[in-house]
Protein: Pyrroline-5-carboxylate reductase
Amino acid sequence: MKKSTILFIGAGRMAESILSGLVQSPNVKDIYVSNHRNKEKLFYLQKKYQVIPSLNWREDIEKADMVVLAMPPEVHLSLLQDMLPFIHNHFVVTIAAGIGPSFLEKHLPENTPAAWVMPNTASEIGQSMSLVAYGKAVLENHKSMLKQVLDAIGEAEECSEEQVHQLTAITGSAPAFLYAFSESLIDQAESYGVSHETAVRLVAQMLAGSSSMLKAKLAPQELREQVTTPGGATAEGIKVLQEGGFDDLIKNAVIATNKKAMSKGKE
Structure:
């Protein structure tokens, strides 16, 4: 398989998370990174990941097979307008919330292959659960090219554009919900007299083990019931969560996240 050259426009946290996994891939030839707002960040990334700093993406875009837009959603329109004269047989991919392939297609030359990837920050340890939606002009060679990226940062699921809009909160934002849950458990563990380090280790391993059980294809309900003896201590805790509206809180958090992401894309 031909090795790809990739240009990242934008060098924020998510871009770096992807880069940290991507630089391990044997299928990538060169990685250029552009970030006009912070040149120091470019040289930091060059030193840490051996990427090539691009001080002007307009000069380097012709070297790229794939262009990854790692900019905030609200600047995509102006960026795409700037890119328009420079796009010739490029595969354009965005990782911005709320920006689907149909938006890219609307503002790029006709028949430009485009895709939307929503990874999460676990990409930096090769454990992302990424969602991907393809545009109308994407061919199998483009999918193979993007697969090189996705395989380097974890697992991926191909979805429709609408499904990515709906599921981003679950795969991309819900890790923050989990970390907030973890913070509460850690705080409570510390209240029982253990050190912060011990509390973090207890909670982290509990979550890791529980996640492994889920990945073993066991149903969440079955796993919950294994832990929850009727009338027992765990059942009492579950009762408190249910009476506090736990299910509704999680669902409403997902809905609110999706609504905000879509509004940012429209901006």
